[in-house]
């Protein structure tokens, strides 16, 4: 679950020991409760030196992993590692994902039509899209040529144009963590996971760390109309993050994010298996540029997280030849990279996923009841 070099990593996350969400720091093999100094992950990320936050040692990392392995999916011990941060996502940041969005659009969400369209689109514009720098003069010339050839798409606009696609993925506090069930709409028939690296930024837009994310996508809904993006992306349990945030320090920087290799494994209940990979070195826009665009004329007083997009687009047939991949209830999805660990979730429908009940009001009430906010709560973090 944890990074291969966990003993050298500075990690931050949330656990529930039965009283409510508790921010923790993991360093030197020990798990520390820092809730008195940082009652929320927002406080923790805003702190200039999270490693200095003090608190009692709860247990070691082996016990952390053991408790996570035993957790009840309906009442998880290991929670999503964010709370009050806004959940943003950047789309169409890899050439392959741009082509797949064009294919969805032209197929009108019909998976059966995708294979033929994919072959035609790839042969005509695949190489050019991969080679061009977004927002450059060469990109503008390619756009003009594609328009003349009746090949232009709204997805290509955000893939090679000056403005990245940045959208709000999920409401505050709605994300699920490692081991939880992740949801797809029950009325979707063409969908897939989107394994991504997620940047965690503070209120000033400074990247403070990274984690793994599953930006679950409904290809049939978005393919029918880009105006259905909200319904394709934002549903119960449709956004998973974890297992923990790896905070940037001398041993882990944005350069490590830019070179990360993301692996995906899906094991289906019927014995089906799919493997894929996403290489951050092939991203069209640097992560720092995506963070900058997310901050452009937009404030985030509690900070934000930003999904960086995915290279992965599953086209391997699962049942019917030519229809490609779609999830089934019971799929186990594992997203991993050595220095961030493994995010594992089981697929269910958004209708059957455990209900989301802990919103902002419930969190505030819980923190106040535990004495973590109020006249004497969180003073160190606020200072």
TrEMBL record:
<dbReference type="InterPro" id="IPR011234">
    <property type="entry name" value="Fumarylacetoacetase-like_C"/>
</dbReference>
<dbReference type="GO" id="GO:0016787">
    <property type="term" value="F:hydrolase activity"/>
</dbReference>
<keyword id="KW-0479">Metal-binding</keyword>
<comment type="similarity">
    <text>Belongs to the FAH family.</text>
</comment>
<dbReference type="InterPro" id="IPR051121">
    <property type="entry name" value="FAH"/>
</dbReference>
<dbReference type="GO" id="GO:0044281">
    <property type="term" value="P:small molecule metabolic process"/>
</dbReference>
<protein>
    <submittedName>
        <fullName>Fumarylacetoacetate hydrolase family protein</fullName>
    </submittedName>
</protein>
<feature type="domain" description="Fumarylacetoacetase-like C-terminal">
    <location>
        <begin position="209"/>
        <end position="347"/>
    </location>
</feature>
<dbReference type="InterPro" id="IPR036663">
    <property type="entry name" value="Fumarylacetoacetase_C_sf"/>
</dbReference>
<dbReference type="Pfam" id="PF01557">
    <property type="entry name" value="FAA_hydrolase"/>
</dbReference>
<keyword id="KW-0378">Hydrolase</keyword>
<dbReference type="GO" id="GO:0046872">
    <property type="term" value="F:metal ion binding"/>
</dbReference>
């Amino acid at each position: 679950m944890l990074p291969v070099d966990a003993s050298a990593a500075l990690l931050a996350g949330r656990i529930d020991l039965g009283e409510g969400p508790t921010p923790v720091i993991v360093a030197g093999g020990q798990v520390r409760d820092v809730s008195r100094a940082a009652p929320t992950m927002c406080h923790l990320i805003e702190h200039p030196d999270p490693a200095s936050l003090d608190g009692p040692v709860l247990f070691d990392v082996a016990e952390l992993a053991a408790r996570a392995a035993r957790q009840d999916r309906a009442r998880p011990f290991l929670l999503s590692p964010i709370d009050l941060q806004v959940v943003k996502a950047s789309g169409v940041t890899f050439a392959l994902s741009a082509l797949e969005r064009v294919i969805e659009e032209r197929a009108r969400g019909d998976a059966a039509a995708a294979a033929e369209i994919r072959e035609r689109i790839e042969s005509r514009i695949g190489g050019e899209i991969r080679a061009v720098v977004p927002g450059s003069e060469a990109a503008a010339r390619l756009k003009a040529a594609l328009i003349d050839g009746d090949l232009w798409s709204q997805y290509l606009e955000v893939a090679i144009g000056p403005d990245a696609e940045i959208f709000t993925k999920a409401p505050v506090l709605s994300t699920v963590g490692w081991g939880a069930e992740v949801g797809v709409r029950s009325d979707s028939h063409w969908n897939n996971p989107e394994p991504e690296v997620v940047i965690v930024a503070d209120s000033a837009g400074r990247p403070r760390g990274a984690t793994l994310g599953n930006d679950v996508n409904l290809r049939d809904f978005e393919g029918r109309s880009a105006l259905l993006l909200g319904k394709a992306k934002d549903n119960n349990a449709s956004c998973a993050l974890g297992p923990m945030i790896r905070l940037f320090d001398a041993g882990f920087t944005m350069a490590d994010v830019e070179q990360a290799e993301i692996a995906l494994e899906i094991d289906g209940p019927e014995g089906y298996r799919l493997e894929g990979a996403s290489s951050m070195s092939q991203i069209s826009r640097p992560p720092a540029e995506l963070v900058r665009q997310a901050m452009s004329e937009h404030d985030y007083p509690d900070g934000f997280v930003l999904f960086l997009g995915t290279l992965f687009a599953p086209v391997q047939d699962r049942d019917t030849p030519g229809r490609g991949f779609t999830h089934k209830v019971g799929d186990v999805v594992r997203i991993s990279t050595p220095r961030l660990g493994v995010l594992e979730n089981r697929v269910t429908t958004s209708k059957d996923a455990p209900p989301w009940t802990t919103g902002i009001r419930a969190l505030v009430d819980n923190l106040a009841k535990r004495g973590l906010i109020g006249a004497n709560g969180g003073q160190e973090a606020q200072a």
